[in-house]
Please model this.
Amino acid sequence: MEFPLLITGGNGRLGTELRRLIPGHYPTRAELDVTNRTQINGLVFESSYAGILHLAAISDPKTADAQRTLSYAVNVLGTRNMARKANEENIPFIYISSDYVFPCTTGGYKEEDAPAPANWYGYTKYAGELEAQLAGGEHLIIRTSFRPKIWSFPTAFSDIITTADYVDVIAQEIATCVALKIRGIIHIGTPAKSFYELAAQRKPQVIPALCTDPTFPRNRTLAISRWLEAKHHARGMVR
Ligand SMILES: NC(=O)c1ccc[n+]([C@@H]2O[C@H](COP(=O)([O-])OP(=O)(O)OC[C@H]3O[C@@H](n4cnc5c(N)ncnc54)[C@H](OP(=O)(O)O)[C@@H]3O)[C@@H](O)[C@H]2O)c1
Model:
């Protein structure tokens, strides 16, 4: 891309990793609050951007559920504001969504499967997807999941399955996806594994545990074949 991206929420976990991978302008929340339309219209577009990469969100499901008015404002209305701004500026809008748009019971969810959010956070992320689509411009919706770089717990669930990976791994995949200019919906992750298997990759002494909370999503796997094919195809093209 000729111009840098504008990245919202760039001081978070994912944004911190993406700074090393995607050149762009990473304003703080004070500089760009996605719920503040005056600020969006007045301050943000002083220079040209190749697109908006929208990371800003209330990303912790417990916080999102406890503060529904806030999480609706940021995750849904904030996404609407930024998606509309991208459309007005005629630049692509890239939105990071979640595996929680699915019920996370049977797993293996494909891009075209019907969302049925697992929790309030998932509901707000799905509503954000609709905002990205309804704004009417070019867009990319990336559904994914990631964990902090270091496994901080002594145990990890061996009976919860995921296509999540560490945030630095997923950030690299997202940067590749953005560079490929893919459009529409895509699922990004790494092959299915238990959280215990993921944790043990970086913390060999981690102890396997069973999840005793019956409400906890058991199978969070996304079908990632479309992403793997896109990467494979892109590698073939550069040869
Ligand atoms: N964590 C996951 O496993 C996961 C999985 C799937 C998708 N996602 C999505 O990926 C994106 C990044 O997640 P993350 O884990 O990096 O989140 P994070 O660490 O919680 O960072 C969120 C960022 O959003 C900013 N923010 C919050 N409200 C804002 C507002 N009103 N205006 C502007 N910025 C605001 C925060 O600002 P401050 O720095 O000031 O707090 C922070 O920089 C989110 O959209 C999340 O929903 C996350």
About this structure: The longest strand covers residues 93-98.
